[in-house]
Input
Amino acid sequence: MRPDRTPWVLGAILAVLLVVGPFAPLWVVFPVTIAIAKGLVALGLMILLRCGLVSFGQALYYCIGAYTAGMLGRVFELDGVFTLMLAGMAVAAATAYVLGFLLARYRGIFFGLLSLAFSMIFYGLLVKSETLGSTDGFNVLPSTLFGIRPADEWVRYAVLAAASSVAFVAALLVHRYLRTPLGSLAPAIKDNEIRVEYMGASARYAIHVKYVIAAALAGLGGGLAATTVGHIDPEMAYWTVSGEFVFITILAGTGNVIAPFLGALIFEGIRNVAFAVSPNTWQMVLGGALLAVIVFLPNGLWSLFRRGRAA
Amino acid sequence: MAAILDAKGLHKSFGAVVAASDITAEVAPDSVVGLIGTNGAGKTTFINMITGYLKPDRGRIHYEGRDITDLAPRDITRLGICRSFQIPQLYSSLSAYENMLIGLSVVMRNHGVGGFFSRGRPDVPGHGRPAEEVADDLLERFGLAEYRDKNAQVLPGGVRKLLDIALTMAAKPKVLLLDEPTSGVSAEEKFSIMEMIMKAVRAEGVTVLFVEHDMEVVSRFAERVLAFYDGRIIADAPPEVALNDREVRRFVVGGELHRLDEKRDGAHA
Output
């Protein structure tokens, strides 16, 4: 068996982020933190994609995570960055647990469109609710780290450090999960559900579990995004945001838990550069990038590393 | 000895078509039963009812004294009744070895082994060794070692059949239902493949029910024959008796058996 290097690589990335973070300029720290938040969502989508399922509504949980974090600050004046993220994760997972009973029955395009429908219902509800700021949303309080409010120039780094630590733990746990009997069932479900059933496993149960995990990760990312950006609005549940997450997941590939974060980082990078260079046609650049990846790297960016290793 | 499998008065119809009509059969543990009959006679319906894929309209199925009629396929599998398919059901994007590993990991999960918090490489329950070793061993026993790293999609038909059956053995079944294990395999290979399957399966004392159209294979490997015709069992006897039964000759075996007789006579002469 090949030694498992993923935990070490993850640890090295965390160390780099923690060490380089304080010296990095703001224009680097902010997109990297956002990339971590989106990477968490994509990590969840990757788990589903391994089963052959694409959720076009993952923004639902991203937005639930963000609104949970925002509401905790607004109603209970809670501002601990870990509390907000974990609360967002818990509410998203609980929602997915309930919706999962329905969604785990569907496959393919039906699964995708049903998940999209739920996210758009939530979007509609948020837009109509005046108390939550309707289409404008509301501002989220600056967060604290273990009850301490960092000095202004350190806030960004504090959030980055918290985000990368949480993402590190999440990626490790998912990496472990994918190697458990239930986790490793994903390609089998994708290939042949009849055989899965006749081996004594329930594909529907496995998908339900994966759906809840994916939602939990999206909620975590949403909570993080809320504290990072400092503002939330219903757009976070809009279908284009879901599309962005699917984009990142396909760009990254499903080869490894590091891939979604890499994908998110590259996505943010391409977008920022494209936006700076051509503000009117930046979507075209993004589209071109995805097209190139699909044509030349059908298994996503991660296949670059696979190939390198095999050679 | 008490029957391991006991089907009583099974009835199943699809609209006007009666696929099973008062099917009653007991199967003794550690035995080999051949199911014969023309297409549409009800053999596969019988298998589908035992494995929970179809629910009978009437009648009950007991396994080791327990009523399994209303259980889902996966629950029946967990109890120890496994099946192979006429068209092999494999994980076609994975290699033969990975197919076996998936099968074994389901077994581990059903026994609560190898979960999130377990350490090291736990043994597969029933096999007493880690999954990687069991997978290779099973491939070896079914003569599949040379196909270990080949994608299941590109394997030849006979090999896919064998892999399909090897997969069922991951779960250590007590009863194995084989739906046409040698169909799509050339006449010359039939016996050797069946020989290999039986050797691998019977070594563990598994009770086998197999559907087969080749009467030579049936008479060689079955200890008992259930002949199906029009949703009914028209004969239930050892092969030498069942295959010579008038009704069976007329409705099931037809010309098939005459050829068999000629061959036998030729051999004796």
